[in-house]
Amino acid sequence: MSSCNLSSPIDASLTKLQSLSVIHLDLNNLSATVPEFFANFTNLTTLNLSSCGLVGTFPQIIFQRPTLQVLDVSNNKDLRGSFSEFPHETSLQNLIVSDTNFSGVLPDSVSNLRQISRLQLSGCQFNGCLPNSMSKLAELVYVDLSNNSFTGPIPTFNMSKSLSHIDLSHNQYNGEIPLYLFSLSSLQTIQLSNNQLDGQLLEFSDVFSSVLDTLDLSSNNLEGTIPTSIFQVRSITILQLSSNKFNGTIHLDLIGRLENLTTLNLSHNNLSINTTVSYAQRSSFPRIRILKLSSCMLREFPGFLKNQTNLIYLDLSNKQIQGIIPNWIWELGFVHLNLSHNMLIDLEGPLQSLHENLVMLDLHSNQLQGPIPILGPYVSYFDYSNNNFSSVIPPDIGSNLLYMMFFSLSRNNIYGRIPESICDAPNLQVLDLSQNNFNGTIPQCLMGISETLGVLNLQGNNLGGSISGTFPKTCSLKTLNLNGNQLQGKIPKSLPNCMALEVLDLGKNQIAFHAY
Fold it and tell me: How far is residue 497's CA from residue 232's CA, in Å, rounded to a whole number?
């Protein structure tokens, strides 16, 4: 009875169907507690109550049903529960309580789950150390304990000869990563990110027989050099090692050996990147889709990028890259491009417009000069702040702001009037034009779009006249900064409509206040 639009509590009359072995009530809106009578179905093998809006406390007695093989109560945020003791005679193979309010520690009796192959406890409130008895779970195939508060070292899972997926991310595990994890021939996914793991990674064994597809060790305290054997695991498609303390030099020709690689993240370490790649190697380089090398020491754009036509996400920020942004980079069809915090001074040009695929463009904190590049039609995040751009904003810019949510030109040399067409951005949430040389008056329509606008920062310009226009009753502004202009007149009486306002700065003007 999955997805049947059921919207009432589970009726006790269901107990009359004593021969039931499989019960699927998932994807309904029961909004009720779980009745204990499920434990009375003597033939019950499968109980699926996922995504039902369940509340209250899950009955412990249901775990005692010896015939039960599959229990899924996931995606019920208001369902509480815990594990006290698992019985010796349990037949559970799949135990799934992800995204519920289950809490407490895993008992030593978890070793009684001798047939368990799928254990999903992610997104709950579990805590404490994982019991060493988990090493006895020889049938485990899929383990997801992510997004909890588990602590202590990672236990042994090497009895599980068929283990293919282990996700312990977003917890508080500490100590070194057990070497056995990298020697399990069946493992396809290892996700250990956002923990407190430390120490060095040792060289992998049996790399040529490995089927490892995803390795995510990001946001830990790992140090030392990255083992070169990682780059011999040709099955890897996702490699994420960011936000650690790795050091040394990574040669791009090593990365070129990972022929199936689609995602690489080495950001926020102490790594240097050797970009030397032969022309022949460029053509055989893996077709990467996501490349993040932020804060790695790199002084030029890697030439192999010219051939990366599948690349949709590129982050080369905080890298000391010098010189100009080459034209070919705009032809790659990025969705997300971050070149911020470098030493870039110009665009190769002439640049007619940005690629239509581009959604997020971040060039802030460089030394870029000249006119601001024309926007693509679907850009939603646009940051050119803290550069040396010098031009007017095109009067028809509004036609390129239909999807814009974040727009910043602050700390440049932009001059002229603020075009009224900027108000044609129906989704704009942040507009920051501060620390420029704008003159004229503030467009009245900017007050009108404060229904969607959360931040309006025009501080440090040469804007004059009065603050005209009306703030609507549905004003959503949280920050209004007009400091350091030449504004006169009185504050609009409609300003109190902005009930969410947290920051208001009208200083260094000639504005008078009403006596309400």
Answer: 62
